[in-house]
Design goal:
The protein is mainly alpha-helical. The protein is built from two helices and no strands.
Length: 88
């Protein structure tokens, strides 16, 4: 029915937003490392150490986003978005 179709469309939109938000956050982690300028008078930052930290954070983001998508999908009815009841 129409309600089921609307629910599925809303879910698709929500899943897309979650995935894009997660990707942007992960990209931001890596971009921060790449664009970090050296600070005069301070010891240079260990890029390898930062990269490992970013990998850990990005993995946690990936897992969390996956769980969020699963939660969204759980309440959406399955099956065709609409069925013709044969009525006139």
């Amino acid at each position: 029915m129409a309600t089921k179709g609307i629910a599925r469309a809303s879910t698709s939109n929500a899943k897309l937003r979650i995935v894009l938000t997660g990707f942007a956050t992960q990209l931001g982690q890596l971009r921060a490392i790449a664009e970090r300028a050296p600070v005069p008078g301070k010891e240079p930052v260990d890029t390898e150490e930062q990269l490992e930290t970013a990998k850990s954070v990005n993995k946690a983001i990936q897992v969390t986003m996956g769980k969020a998508v699963e939660e969204i999908c759980r309440d959406v009815p399955e099956g065709p978005a609409s069925k013709d009841s044969g009525g006139g």
